[in-house]
Amino acid sequence: MNNRQLFLRHLAQTSDAPLALEITHAEGMYMYQANGKRLLDLIAGISVCNMGHCHPAVVAAIQQQAGTYMHLLVYGELVQSPQVAYAHLLTQHLPAHLNSVFFTNSGAEATEGAMKLAKRHTGRTEIIGFTNAYHGSTQGALSLIGDESMRNAYRPLIPGIRHIAFNEVAALQHITERTAAVMAETVMGEAGIRKPTRAWLQALRQRCTDTGTLLILDENQCGLGRTGSLWAFEQYGITPDILTLGKALGGGMPLGAFVADRLIMNDLTHAPVLGHITTFGGHPVSCAAGLAGFEALLHADVIATIPAKEQLFHTLLQHPRIQEVRSAGLMMAVQLDDFPTNKKVIDYCIERGLLTDWFLFCADALRIAPPLIITENQIREACTLLLEALDNV
Ligand SMILES: Cc1ncc(COP(=O)(O)O)c(C=O)c1O
């Protein structure tokens, strides 16, 4: 049996139609397949490898840390320099009250930790999420996500969770003194790239402050430079009480985090003690990789290049079959008529060397979320192929 057959036989599948492309190696903007074909990566592992695949500084940091120490003891017991250095650097680039980092293994785990922290800190039980939001696949995160078909298959879920409409002022009235937390993606990803208005996000912030509710912002997809500022919330003139991170946080290694004020975070240390624990969260190799990736992101000044790249995509992606292109920096959705059209375009592109996909809750839009290092020529190459696909499918 070849690798593809073994993959289908022995790896648990998440759908009945996996891409099942066999990748032998990846570097920069490209993945290389066993069949000798190269793929230009337009989705960065869903907003993960912001600095491209196998960035040399990240690879060196992994190798160095792997030879120094790997797992030592459950998270939180020992002083491990990769965790300390990364938490220190991250908090230097966050508002002053986001000064305490709890590292996790994934974005979903960051959601779980943030939900628990909000309940514990406020003594309240209600949590509010948004229609079409995505925060992960574990039971707590699943309870909070905003898609009924995904939630419904796994009931009963966590009680006390309500869903309201994103970017609607009237919906904010549902946030009351009973609400422990509201969790929102600053820019919605899987809903097909939906940006809130500045006025609405500020009103959400205000409503949370007025009711003593904690505002949790999820920047798994939109954080770490992708929208053209280090954090997406910077563009809205507000700050969250808790920030959740993942995806690009580990530089390509598994790493998530929830970040809050030390005074809030300390609630996890008592009554009960060890209120939130993890064996591998903040793995030293992941933290070393994430730190190297974060430093590379800052030093390469790549964030400053994003508005021009975003604009170039908009300029080039003109076609009668494109309804609109929604974007927040290099987090983009190309809105097509329907899923069959989108799927044909995606398949056409993959066949000819361009990797893209659709969104969980917006299957008729095509995803553009490349490594942030994409060049002007690569944007032109990608758009030429996308337009050619739209002419031919
Ligand atoms: C906005 C957002 N939050 C949380 C998650 C969950 O992250 P993970 O898949 O690492 O659990 C995702 C994953 O796609 C996401 O897009």
From TrEMBL:
The keyword Transmembrane does not apply. It holds the Pfam family Aminotran_3. It comes from the Bacteria. GO terms for molecular function: identical protein binding; pyridoxal phosphate binding; transaminase activity. The keyword Repressor does not apply. Its cofactor is pyridoxal 5'-phosphate. Keywords: Aminotransferase, Pyridoxal phosphate, Transferase. Belongs to the class-III pyridoxal-phosphate-dependent aminotransferase family. PANTHER family: ACETYLORNITHINE AMINOTRANSFERASE, MITOCHONDRIAL, AMINOTRANSFERASE CLASS III. This is Acetylornithine/succinyldiaminopimelate/putrescine aminotransferase. It comes from Chitinophaga costaii.
